[in-house]
């Protein structure tokens, strides 16, 4: 096993397009690192540069103690783990796992020992004589991992391994990969565009947009302290609500009314004019079900639609956006691959809430957890930098979200 250190990596394609811009990501030995971002953000290019399938324009790729920029893929000792299509259908599970050892001319005794070790770890003992076609998706995934294990690879690399599966199977496979990675403790880099996979699998997550690293942090740090509008909108489901806001003293004026926010938060946004406030759906509640003693503030608003799911409900509350913020919010939506600017608040309510469509409801807001963003740079003015992992300094206009 080994650490993987990407240092100031740049990839400029032949046509002059810069797919990766000065990205630095340090993957610790045994760490599960996720590269996540929308289509075209450069995540696959980055992974291909780690493996050696793509040249590095500038920067250093360091695996363990070695700079591998000029090493061929086969000399980097990394294992790309593909899904079932990389298994040989006519070979047994045993022979599929043994394949790289046979290729390397290992003795029968060594092959037998290594395959059995791997199959014990991967709980495949009883399937060794079966063909891949007769296995479940999860078992096939483990066979593919087995093949990587017997090679004693320094790291596992996954490129969107679950994207073709239906939602249920994707959930199962996610748990499977997570369990096996923890058991093996092997350094892993996993590329996905799915924020749920990123949040559930990663020890840390590198969020990329248009070739720029936006933030490198643990899932919790990303969720609680997103460095900018893009990360805030990308991480979390349903996504964070964005709306126009201004601060006066400790009062925050939102489209629905004015709420009181903590002084420390208000100070960070003082004198900044029109801002974008970000509040996650789950940081609102029906005021009548909020227990006494909870801090925060309330406002009244007319509820357009309520979707009741049993354990919770979503209430939708339309609002207006000032013309001067429209362009920023439109651009943000495009970056997030959304469907046009959201001009309705999505509020998550307790399943016990009695709020109905058309009600003028009293809504509670967790004022501690409101984020305030500078619309021109996208920067989160209220972020706690101590608890936000690494937020690169993105000066380049291409990098600034929205
Ligand atoms: P996806 O999820 O769609 O695969 P990605 O984040 O993995 O996206 P990459 O495949 O890394 O994105 O591509 C990053 C950018 O580089 C894209 O804008 C893509 O069009 C561009 N790109 C990829 N390969 C080449 C190439 N050979 N020449 C020029 N540009 C390329």
Description:
- The chain has 402 residues and is an alpha+beta fold.
- The chain folds into two domains: 4-221, 3-Layer(aba) Sandwich (Rossmann fold), CATH 3.40.50; 228-384, Beta Barrel (OB fold (Dihydrolipoamide Acetyltransferase, E2P)).
- The protein has ten helices and 21 strands.
- The longest helix is centred in the middle third of the chain and has 18 residues, at 167-184.
- The structure holds adenosine-5'-triphosphate.
- The site of adenosine-5'-triphosphate has 13 residues, from helix 1.
CATH fold naming of the largest domain: Rossmann fold
What best-fitting shape do the alpha-carbon axes yield?
elongated
Which regions contain 5 or more consecutive residues with pLDDT less than 50?
A: none
Largest sheet: 6 strands, mixed
Strand order of the biggest β-sheet: 6-7-8-3-9-10
What's the end-to-end separation, in Å?
A: 39 Å
How much of the polypeptide forms β-strand, as a percent range?
25-35%
Give me a quick take on this structure:
The protein is of the alpha+beta class and 402 residues long. Helix content is 26%, strand content 29%. The protein folds into two domains: 218 residues, P-loop containing nucleotide triphosphate hydrolases (Rossmann fold, 3-Layer(aba) Sandwich); 157 residues, Nucleic acid-binding proteins (OB fold (Dihydrolipoamide Acetyltransferase, E2P)).
